[in-house]
Specification:
Elements lengths: L12 H8 L3 H23 L6 H33 L10 H33 L4 H23 L3
């Protein structure tokens, strides 16, 4: 929502400054990520019960995508943190403490969330998929998320 409570010691100072300065595009990004978190919660709840055919396909697609995005994102945090801690990569001294937060808290948390989505999606698909249709939608969602992540990384957008 644009507030920095609790973020000053666990988030990059440049991001905290953008929030403090109320940079419009950054506040919009914060709101979008907040809405995505609400969507993720609804997706998680949706994967707990049998749904109609269309909704089931959408749940499998989004569940597979969420699993890949979260594990991928957390994996980058952990890999970067390991490289910094091993001395193979350097960061500015004022960011060294943040690297540990990303390595020990944020990265594993994202990975755990991604694995939870993977487990929930696989359970949902196994229970309801008699023709392989949901499995296909989950795989397409996962592959789409992976390709989107790779494209954003290659282009420098994300």
């Amino acid at each position: 929502m644009g507030f920095t409570f609790g973020a000053r010691t666990t988030v990059s100072p440049s991001l905290v400054k953008l929030a403090d300065d109320r940079v419009a595009w950054f506040v919009a990004v914060l709101w979008v990520t907040g809405l995505l978190k609400v969507f993720g919660a609804l997706l998680g709840v949706g994967l707990t019960r049998r749904r109609g055919r269309r909704i089931g396909r959408l749940l499998a697609f989004c569940g597979g995508g969420a699993a890949v995005l979260l594990v991928w994102h957390g994996g980058f945090f952990v890999a970067h943190g390991v490289l910094v801690e091993a001395g193979a990569r350097s960061v500015a001294p004022d960011l060294a403490g943040l690297t540990r937060w990303y390595l020990c808290l944020w990265g594993p948390w994202f990975i755990a969330g991604g694995l939870a989505f993977a487990a929930a999606t696989m359970r949902y698909v196994r229970r309801l998929d008699t023709r392989g249709e949901l499995r296909l939608h989950g795989a397409v969602g996962a592959l789409g998320a992976l390709l989107l992540s790779l494209a954003s990384m290659i282009t420098g957008i994300g």
